[in-house]
Structures are given as C-alpha cells and as structure tokens.
Specification:
4-stranded antiparallel β-sheet, 2 helices, alpha+beta
Length: 186
Amino acid sequence: MTDERRNEERGTAESPATPDGRAVPRRRFLNDSWKVLGVVLIAEGAWTSYDLLRPAAASGFGGVVDAGSIEDFLEEGTVKYSLNGRFYITQYQGGLRALYQKCPHLGCKVPWDEATAEFKCPCHGSVYNLIGEYESGPAPRGMDRFPITIENDHVMVDTSAFVEGPPPGTHEGPPPGEVSPQGGTS
C-alpha cells in the first residue's frame, strides 16, 4: 500500500509544502499562523488607539462654530440663535456677545422674548437684558458667555470654554425693554 492510499484511508491530508517542495510540519504551521494573527491583532489595536487618542476637531458645540457673516450682526439690537452652537449672538452698541442658552440657575434653555426685548427663563422666571446681564429672578449671575473672534468677516464662537456671566448689579447694557428687537431670532 502506498503512502497516499494510507493517508486517504485515515482521513489525513498532506502537510503544506515549502517553496523547495519539502513538507511543513503541522506544529510549525500552527505556530507561524498564531504569530501572524498576533501581529495583526497588535496592529489593529495600535490603529484603534491612535484614533482614540487623536480625535477629529469638534465642529459643533464643544468646538469653534461659525455663527455667520459679520454683516448679519450690524443692526443694533440684533439677536440670532445658533442651533449648532447652542448660543445666542447679540449686538449692542457695536459689541457682539455670544450668550450660552443655559440659565445659570438650574440649566433651563432661556429663550429671547421679542415682545419685551429680554431673555426670560421659563423654569423659574430669571430675566436677563439684551447682553445677558442679570435683571431679576433666582439666577446667581448673568448668562454665561463664549469667546468670539472675527475671521475672514465671519463671527467664530469658541464653545469649548465659557466665561461666567457678570454678577448681579452689573449694568452695561440697556434696561429691559429699551432696545427694540430689530434682528429677531433665526
């Protein structure tokens, strides 16, 4: 009986051959396979770790947000809302302010009331003027603000860091209801 016939009867196959025609022992083949799989696993882990440690820059809230052209904010009393950045841009006496939408009291979203030209918190009644200064209610300070820069005639707001709003009693902006809401919200 030949070797091929005996292997067929036992159900065993021949070992893989090397380029020079010699058979590779099964144990060496399995060891080499495990080594290759280990290297592949390490490479995939390194790739994933690199992606986690080097995330892409945030483009919405938590990063720099383009609030629009500077020409959108030239009109006195303009108030525009940025859904992507979760802030209001207000214009008063030529100055722009980016006001965080959250009330500093308990975190409710504070809408702009066009009829009274004020920001009014619907949860507990805190009231803020056009530039986010505290007017009345239980809030401990004015609305928090984000830094603004102008780049290529666009208003850029950095939402990754905010500045606490001014303390009660600070009044640089208009009294409630004095500035007519010309810009409205968008």
